[in-house]
Give the backbone structure.
Amino acid sequence: MSAPRAPVLVVGAGVFGAGAAWELRRRGHAVLLLDPGPIPHPDASSTDVSKIVRTDYGSDAFYHELAGEAMAGWDRWNAECPRPLYHEDGFLLLSASSLDAGGFEHESLRMQERAGNPVERLSGEALSARFPRWSADAFAEGYLNRRAGWAESGAVVEWMVDRALDAGVVLEETGVESLAFAGDEVTGVVTTDGRTVRGSTVVVAAGSWTPALVPWLGGLMSVTGQPVLHFLVEDPTPFQAPVFPTWAADIANTGWYGFPALDDGRVKVGHHGPGIPLDARPGDAAWTAHEERCRAFLQRAVPALADAPVVTRRVCRYCDSRDGDFLVDRDPGHPGLVVASGGSGHGFKFAPVLGRIIADVVDGSGQETYSRFRWRTSAAARPEQARSRG
């Protein structure tokens, strides 16, 4: 009798890894999911309380259409979950100047209109009347996309991992120190406690830890820390949908985005910019400077939130690719290795489709459909507005 085939090893239990493990097991693979825990990991980009779910990608039809597939998946998951984890509260995309052709907001609006999505263009005055917490003087125009919202990100990761375990995936809470090789072939991983675990295929879906495990991707991927603040308001109602949906405020120029208040009064405000170095935890001076910039923005845009106390500070760890595209492919120089990473700050919304895409690569199908995720070790940088992370 032949020995049983080694399992597929999936390194990382964020949305890339959990989705891959779940889908691979559904297709009949034996799967071992490796993550240091806890799940969701507090430093991973997949966690926190919320992530924006939207299809607004400027003129980028590829991500717009893929996000449309994911939206159908969020609807399906809401029907399957004990309670909805995706909240379709809308997405408010604001611009400090008029919506001129070629700008991110204008092109996003055109793409939404072509797709027949429910969008409403707003002047600055209409914005303030419809959404009274926003200042009429801060923005010239914008639009509301009602087919969008936010997901409870940490809860989604927990649910995905639970579903994977229910399907028969085996979870081992252990860190991975390095890949294991036989010549150029990847045959498994070496754990942080010194064990070698063999696998038929190794899927590295380790988020910001991917460049450390696959260092030859250093020309493509880098790790940044993007700061997030949670403000506390006494009455959450004026900061909740429908009068305060998820939003991006002239994001290609300012980097600011945020969410409606949770029922406990927390209002999350994030920023995409140069980020905070991750070689050490940011000190008080770095956080003070960031908080001052955030409050200055809020004073102009959402004055009622500008003096609210901060109750949570968090650094969201990104694994950025230079071109903003994910990497989901086999490594042609190292048989047995699949990399599924490079979320670049905008991967979470694709959670319902990522597992299928990664499993197709493991099974040897589907790569032509997603050619922008093909293997590469370097890439030309693309402007931030081309993908508007979040």
User: Anything to note?
Assistant: The chain is about 25% helix and 25% strand. Residues 17 and 332 are 21 Å apart (CA to CA). The chain has two domains: 8-46+154-220+322-386, 88-150+222-318.
